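Consider the following assembly input.
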Amino acid sequence: MSGANRIAGQGRLTPARTARFTFDGKTFDALEGDTVASALLANGVHLVGRSFKYHRPRGILSAGPEEPNALVDVSRDAARRQPNVRAPVQEVFDGMKVESQNRFPSLAFDIGGINNLMSPFFAAGFYYKTFMWPKAAWEKLYEPFIRKAAGLGVAPTEEDPDHYASRYAYCDVLVAGAGVAGLSAALAAAEAGARVILVDEQPEVGGALHYDLSVKIDGQNGYDWAQATAAKLKAMENVTVLTRTTAFGYYNHNFVGLVERVTDHLARPDRKLPRERLWQVRAKRVILATGSIERHMVFANNDRPGIMLASAARTYLNHFGVAVGRKVGVYTANDSAYEAAFDLKRAGVTVAAIVDNREKPGEGVLAEARKLGIEVLAGHSVVDTKGKLRVSSMSVARNGGGSARSIPIDALLMSAGWTPSVHLFSQSRGKVAYDAATGRFLPGTYAQDCLSVGSCNGTDGLQATIEEGLAAGELMARATGHEGGGKVELSGENAFEWTGGMAGSGEGAGVDTTVKAFVDFQNDVCAKDIRLAVREGMHSIEHIKRFTTNGMATDQGKLSNIHGLAIASEVLNREIPKIGLTTFRAPYTPVTFGALISHSRGDLFDPARKTPMHAWEEAHGAVFEDVGNWKRAWYYPRSGETMHDAVNRECRTVRSAAGVFDASTLGKIEVVGPDAAEFMNLMYTNGWDTLKPGRCRYGIMLREDGFIYDDGVVGRLSEDRFHVTTTTGGAPRVMHHMEDYLQTEFPHLKVWLTSTTEQWAVIAVQGPKAREILEPLVEGIDMSNEAFPHMSVREGKFCGVPTRLFRMSFTGEAGYEVNVPADYGEAVWEAIWARAEPLGACAYGTETMHVLRAEKGYIIVGQDTDGTVTPYDASLAWAVSKKKTDFVGIRGLKRPDLVKEGRKQLVGLLTKDPKVVLEEGAQIVADPNEPKPMTMLGHVTSSYWSENCGRSIAMALVAGGQARMGQTLYVPMPDRTIAVEVSDMVFVDKEGGRLNG
Amino acid sequence: MADHALRKAPLAGRHGGSAGARVTPAAPATRLSLRAGADALGALSAAFGLTLPTRPKTSASAGGRHALWLGPDEWLLIDENEADLMALAAGAGVLHSAVDVSHRNTAILVSGPHAAGAIASGCPLDLGNAIFPVGAAARTVLGKIEVVAFRPGEEDYRVECWRSFSPYAFGLLSEGAEDAGL
């Protein structure tokens, strides 16, 4: 037998199918289909955890996702371990390990329990008051200590070995919840022909039919009807039924997030299966059939293990075949708890008494109680309980005073009524309305195309629920254009209609400030804390919530919100709706990071963009750097070389022989159309009318405010076709910038833009031997200096494939950039390399490229500019057309601030000690002895060791820099002050003769 | 004259997917990014030998050549037989922009009964028959990248993306294909 409290003949699990698991190291037997909670209860284990703040012994309160107490750590192996799992939700599998949390050294004896005795010091808000002084101690002392003492489980440290999947899905009607209402709605919608997705968080459909045995639908037992209906729906082509799936978030335009738990219940899951699957569903219509959640009663010491919701006890009995006690008490303000007592009594459990807070219980249940011989104490309250690790007795007193009578019990079932689950409705931005007659918040104003049905809509009564579900299903199907099928009719009957319910604290909650009558179990918030919050001046529910932390635990106050409101309402003497209800946020229940991340991990975390030559570069020892999503060859160290050695060698080799460089990542945009030149005139500072086909020009692009946005070399291929290059990182935004202006400001122009970044592999060959390397590979292009001068572009063939060959340079050497269709890139690179290597050339990376361009004073947008630099500041006035009357940024450039004296200008810096390399970003001052705060003139933007110059070089933005040529300035560093001389920015070949070499 | 350089596709040698959704790199094709106004469509259609579609999410195909509508003045032309589309466009004699993007894009073929499910692992588009029937095409996203999804056959989808994004697309589609069949 799987547990002494399993009652033969009760429940729906199969006795022959067992599973074995451990709890805190002790082995227990369970049945297949058990949850951790039902299996522990079957074995008589009620104590499963310690509370968050006071470390009080806690048991299993519920049989569903609202569970605030029974949070456990569940593991399959060392890496597959998850803390804070709700025991009533987690299904048992063979071999699972369950550990209790927040206790030391053991669950039964927990040192932290001292907090319970010291609780007078831990009143609500004590964190805010007690630990304010000294201020510095909060971060270092108080907070770490409190975090350690108060808390949940411990996160696993190993990498998650499971994988997760994701699916986008569409449907006409999404039904959230597969109880009576949801099944009815799904059935009607599906029969009409709508595409339906029906989801339920439990392993099987049925909702309340799990515990309510009295329900019959179309003459069939309710639970069996539910399973048969689900089977029928699953067989329909237009229906998807997802169980173990929680609709956790309701977003804009009927976009609903679902998480499907695929393997967490399996002992040996197929490794192909994802652990969880994230569904992102766009539904034309949504039907919310999310049911309602039973509330606990608020009274002194209502948190002892063995005290639980009445419906939970009923579920454990009727579904799992487990009696939660041998002698149970019931404390209720609502009829529904009576049925739990009846079921238990019929199963042979002693019911000590039903204590009913009301003077007048429902007549039907009262009569049945009498018939079964159960004592009913109407107009009474439970005012206290006893029992260290499990409840052993309840004290019952007549309302309005009188002596208390102690009744021995080993379990206490409670019900204060039912809270409609309006979480998803609220997430959809629907406004709830308070129904004073029944004391419930119900869906009021809808914000999206959805409908609530059943008890989440405040609909009581079985037949009313069925009919509301069917009508909604039919209506939503029609709304999405489906009118097929006949009318679906169902008839249901059950034993009792439920009346009653209360919110807030009863007599047993006491009025003094020491009684612990829990409102929020997970955050250890008591009725007295809410009262204190009001006394301290918190009058809005939002303030009360934050002061007390009521409803702020991971259960989001599923049990506590309404009680908290009602207590505040009573103390403030204001109606509940005037105090308001806090807004429900997604997720409804906690969702794993794994599910949210889904496929986005490892190689799929982010695209790693590689050029066509990447494999060659890798094989030749390149070290890569990330530039945006691109992997770019940074430098090519040979054996024994440091980065510094490699870069120095590469820099020397390019200027003495030649270098080969992968420039494929540069952005490329093809600008085509009869108005191409006019468009270029508007987008760039330069003039383009005079650029002849076959020639290139360095272009500067500004933003409207006059600051440099991007730069690049542009080749004119024909009258109506430009080949524009952009910086690597700027490619997408430059394209968008141009497209934006084309569509909004210049729509009259006949010109189109196409991104060709990835069409071309680009191989730069730079250096005195560049032409010698390339010439034999070129076909149809005269490579002579005269026919093909610097800043030209030619189309022809290269290694037999089409090329756009640019004569251009970002190194100051004579150079070319070979553009070939990308799939040929690797082969062309190899052909070039086969010629280059014997001629003493090297492959070089981005670091060398940076040094070589700095030796020539060529700027890098985004490094030497920062969004506050104009072309004038960067000594690029020559690139700004004086003739043009319009281009993007022309007005900005005329702003007084942008033309005034003393602006920061880009200049060169030479350290007095040539061996010292400045730090990029270092500040520059004129007087190193000036008291702090010193007057900062600017900062170093680029700084390198230049092997070719035999000294360090730097570029910097310096206030009034052009007027400071030759001046000595200072760069104060933590350990010393470095003297520098302001220079121009060209450090190599000032005349530029090498370009034409 | 130099030896003719050999072509190497970005997904050369890859295979993936599942029995229900095979994921394979498409063969090389010529491609054109075509931009033109409404008045040029007749001449351009004649030049390409198919009627350029003018409704969103549609395409036209003829003999291995496909024209996918991407925008009010934008089409992606794909020729699986590698015809010289640039030359055909140039012969139309009407105002347009044609840019060769044969190597910019690469394509991944997803085929089998779970092909749509494989793509739906990362693509928020409704790929069902009612919304995305055979012949449908759309520029959309797959995970973190932009793709063009095209459905040439009942159980066949072609996912076009830029070449440097193709390993990412291929990996995501392969994972999606494995899950779609479960």
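The domain at 16-180 of chain B is CATH 3.30.1360.120 (Gyrase A; domain 2). Ask yourself how this observation constrains the way the partners meet.
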